Predict the structure.
Amino acid sequence: MSRGKKVVQANPPFPPFSPTVQANPLFPPFSPTGSQSMILTITMHAHQLVQSDQCAVYLHEEGKGTLWSVTASTAKDVRIPSDKGIVGASVQGKCIIMVEDVTLDDRYLEAENLIVATGGIDDKPKTMLVVPLLVPREEGLQGKGGERCLGSIVMQNKREFDGEISAFNEEDAEVMETFAK
């Protein structure tokens, strides 16, 4: 210990890892069920970060050429071609897409609608934010280096404090991009 300086720890260090500590049985490591639970947790909470009505994760099934929607709010099992729709454009281009009015975007597919039909005026999305889930591609696997797109996080209908629908902005995109990493 150095002379004249006293080190005070505000918080004690974490206890050393013990192999007797049990993992959470709801989220077993490296299991498909654990991955699906994690994705459903994302869809249940991520939309709160940017105040959107709905959120889904679309998983890229490269071998099938499809995007599979995973969402906690609907029981729909939605699969769309990975080269179609706004979500497909984001996955193929590995880019963030913000759409102010999906009714004016030729790429929009009705299958991308995450809004649960209630018979009201807001049964369809107006605005969308799509953020790709990118991971580094391993050398030698289907190409050299770069990034691989596992899918995307989709937000629909950003809500202002007064309840009105508004466009997603750069700050929303940055928040979701950070969340996607």
Q: What stands out?
A: Strands lie at 52-61, 66-70, 78-81, 97-99, 128-136, 147-159, 165-166. The chain has one domain: 48-180. Helices lie at 32-49, 85-93, 170-180. Confidence is low (pLDDT under 50) at residues 1-33.
